[in-house]
Amino acid sequence: MATHYEQILENVRSKLLLMGQLSIDSLRLSLQALLDKDTELASEVRAKDKEIDTLENELINDVNVCLSTHAPVAGDLRLLVTTMKISHEIERVGDEAKTIARRSKKTAVNDFHLIPKMAESAQEMLKDALSVFVEYDEEKAKAIWTKDLEIDAMNLENNQFCQALVIKDIHLVSSIFELLFISKSLERIADHAVNISKEAVFLATSRDIRHAPEFKKSYLKKNLD
Amino acid sequence: MMKDQRSQSNRFSSGNNRMVNLEKIVFGITRILTYVILFCACFIFWDIISKGSRKLFTDDGFINWSFLSESPQTLHVIEHNGEISKLSSDEYFKFKEELSDSAWDELNSRDEFTKVQKRLKANLVTATEVTSNEVQKSLLTSFIQDEQTEATEKFTYWMELLENASSHAPDFQVSSENMPYLVGRFILAFLDQTKLKYSLLETELSFFQALHYPKIDHLSSQSIQKIKLAYFNLLEEHLHKIWEAYIAEKKNLKENINDFLQSPSPTSFSTLESQIIGYMENPLLLKENSASLLEAITSDLQWIGSEHRIEVPSKDYAYSGGGIFPAIAGTILLVGGAMLIALMLGVCCAIFLSEYGKSGKFLSLVRLSILNLAGVPSIIFGLFGMGLFVIFLDWNVSILAGWFTLAFMVLPIVITASEESLRSIPKGFRESSLALGATKWTMIRTSVLPYAMPGILTSAILGVARVAGETAPIMFTAAFAMRSELPWEGLEHWTDFFFQGVMALPYHIYVISKIPQNEYTVDMQYGTALVFLILVFLLASLSFIIRSRLRRKFNW
Amino acid sequence: MIKEKKAPSYPIAIDVKDLSFSYGKTEVLSSISLQILQNQVTSFIGPSGCGKSTLLRCFNRMNELIEHAKITQGSVLINELDIYEKSVDPIELRKRIGMVFQNSNPFPKTIYQNVSYGLKIQGFKNKRKIDEIVEDSLQKAALWDEVKDRLNENAYELSGGQQQRLCIARTLAVQPEIILMDEPCSSLDPVATARVEELIFNLKQDYTIVIVTHNMQQAGRISDLTAFFYLGKLIEFDETKKIFINPKMQQTEDYISGKFG
Prior knowledge:
The complex is a heterotrimer. Chain A is mainly α.
């Protein structure tokens, strides 16, 4: 039977995973809202974001209490610290999903080019990042970073596509801007997923690789090519 | 290189030789003193053991049980057939008896003896011939009449004395008030003297005395007359009882005569001899005018006696023979009882001092007094015991007085040691016990006292050694120099056990040391001392065993 | 707006009203007022000599054993009855309030005899009932599995942590309502301490627990309410979470962060 303290930690972990799941759902719903131009889905996304925010507050409070009363060390301390940081990232992902849903109402464009693919990829990255958090898998983590490079590439391509669209039809410029922003949001979501995975690496290995030179994008790119 | 090493070692070697030498000297002195003490202790023990074991162990090496189980007796040293042997009184008498037995056997075989026996038989038969009852009775009556006449003369004499009290006063140096009292005492003394040898009448006479003695307080010529009449009545009344008693005596005499004549032996001879000699004065049992016969009988008896009784001259030494069993028993009783009383009183006092007492001036005063008690000389305890228990409480010299005196003597040791051991129980036991809802006494009884027991029994060990060895306290309160009965013998009522004195080993050693020293008494002294040491050691190890078992049971 | 969940309110087990206590002429506690809540763990923290153990011992009148110790003002109410009134028997009081001490001191008897001691002195005779209560107490003290085969061994054969749990079982056997603990883990190693703390957490469902501790982290881990004492005064008394995250008094914060004491 788990002790009281172990229960507290388990509680924190489950809340974080719940937040993560909510954010993935948010993202999926926002994409759906974009493709189907469904305003109801958009408001659902907004509601989910509120839930994510509430959960984040609770989580921060719980972590604070646990840190002050139990003074954990080693793995438990890393868990709590990374939980706080990952919850922030997830909260940002929720915000980005909300933005996407908001912008999807304003765009009238029908051809989304690579955006669905990006969203799909971003969702997978989030899922993978959370699973690396739950169970450390170095290969999976590396795959996430590789995927991030792909999303960056797709974002650039979207920009070029949008530029071409604007030249074609100058009256659609506001809609196309929305599209650009949506693409940017997705790229940011991917970055958040990468951050989550890096925190997960810290949790598992206590190596802080956020700013390590060998994980900079340029370096990764070089090695890929 | 070598020089460096040397200077290196010199840096750490002590340069101060004077201190080193001083230390060596001090160490040497302490060592020597310790060895001296050890040597003296060994010498003392060796002395006692070697001299005492002469008495304690027989020549074969087994324990001399007779030494430990008999009472002290006089030692008789005899020389017989060139051999010197040491015998206790029992052995001495037995030895003499055996000798007379063998002499008797030798006598029996002689012709002279047969002749004497025949003569004796004839004389005895003639002397104890049955006279007719009437003659005997008249003899008895005349004897009683003689008694009465004599009594009358005496009574008259005392009556005259009474009537002429004042004229005889200077002779008797009594006042007229005391005269009746004294006269009464004289009369009774006279009455005592007229006691006939028949025990029946003796009993009656003492009742008579009891009955009439108070009346003699207010003596007058009338009351003297009354007493005289009563006395004569008594004689008349008990005439038939006297007669029956006389018949029984005669029968007894006849039986003894027959015993001797049929199967002569030293025992039957001595019985007959004592009876005949006793009756020489009493004409009633033997034929009248048998004085010459009696003479012949007596001379024959004397001849037989001298022939078979062999005198064995002996040198007697008091207390040097026999054993010391009563002393051992007495010491064990005294020590056991005293320690029980001391433990009970001491433990209660220690509990009060350590648990219930409020610290302050009063308690410090109590503790100071107890410590002072430890320094009081033991003879003072003896006098205290005598004053309080023997005289004031009227217990007389008794085991009870000895118990209490010894208990008081050892009380300081018991109290201080018990208090120490009670204090050494960790506070935690008390607190946990109280926190579970125990009253103070329950707490003491269940979680303090049992674990303090080993310490308390340690004090018992110390106390036993002290109590067993003290002479002065028991000298006045419990000890007898010599007592023929063991403490559990001769008791009419079970409470008498506590009110009798006993012999005790330390006092016994004192007693045998007072008599003149010679080779025999030395043996006895050292033997007693050795037994005493062993006894104290055994008593102490008993407490030791109890303590270690308790320690194992209650170990914490 | 962060909405905090409203904590359920617990009834008051011990109500201390303006209590002052002194040993002889030295005042050890001044004007202490606090409420111990039922089925909650309350911890007393503070530097050495600040009076927390003294206050604890006031609750079961153990201070009466020390000479010249007396309450100079105030009262201690349990179930609205002042326990220092003449009509209250301290022996009965101590059966309702158990105490566990710093140095675990089981009696040098067997394990069974230790646990059944409190029952025996109350006069329980029914052996089966005693067996039941002994097993129940040892279960509650999380010691049953380790000693059920050796109830007749001497208690001193157990390890330090087991001995302390035995003392707790001994206290539980008397079925008190409130359990007072005076630094119960201070002589135990971390593993034994963790087990005792887990035990305390489980016990609070059935008992009210007050624990004095030198170890702040312990107070943080197990207690629901914490009282901080300093030099005989109650400085702060609040929920543990609040004290450890944001204490109201500066002294409390200094003590908790280890700046003194």
